[in-house]
Amino acid sequence: MKKVLAVLLIFIFNGIFTISPAFAENVMFNVETKKVHKVSCPHAQKCTKNCIKIDRKDAYHQGGKPCKTCGG
Ligand SMILES: [Zn+2]
Q1: What is the pTM of this model?
Q2: Between residues 16 and 68, the one the model is more confident about
Q3: How far is the CA of 14 from the centre of ligand 1 (A)?
Q4: 18-55 pLDDT per residue, tens
Q5: Distance, CA 57 to ligand 1 centroid (Å)?
Q6: Separation of 72 CA from ligand 1 center, angstroms?
């Protein structure tokens, strides 16, 4: 019974971490223009060549600037 509870707790915690935006939110970072887009941004969806999916924190660390459309 204890084991079941532990497994259940792991599932709940995993759910919180994936939903919470405070934890490692991925953005699309254009390495050429240094623009930071939300993954859902139409510009990010068009940008397939120069864009990489990285952590928002890392994108701004690399000199990223927020996109004017989606706000980064
Ligand atoms: Zn954008």
Answers
A1: 0.67
A2: 68
A3: 28
A4: 555 556 789 999 999 999 999 999 999 999 899 999 99
A5: 16
A6: 6
Asked if 2 contacts 22 with a C-beta cutoff of 8 angstroms, the reply is no
Report the pLDDT value the prediction gives residue 52, as an integer from 0 to 100. 96
CA of 2 to the centre of ligand 1 (A): 46
Q: Give the rounded distance of the alpha carbon of 11 from its chain centre.
A: 21
Distance of CA 17 from the midpoint of ligand 1 (Å)? 24
- Tell me the two tokens of residue 62: 């690399």
Q: Strands 26-30 and 51-55, how do they pair?
A: antiparallel
DSSP 8-state secondary structure symbol assigned to residue 50: S
Question: What count of residues does the chain have?
Answer: 72
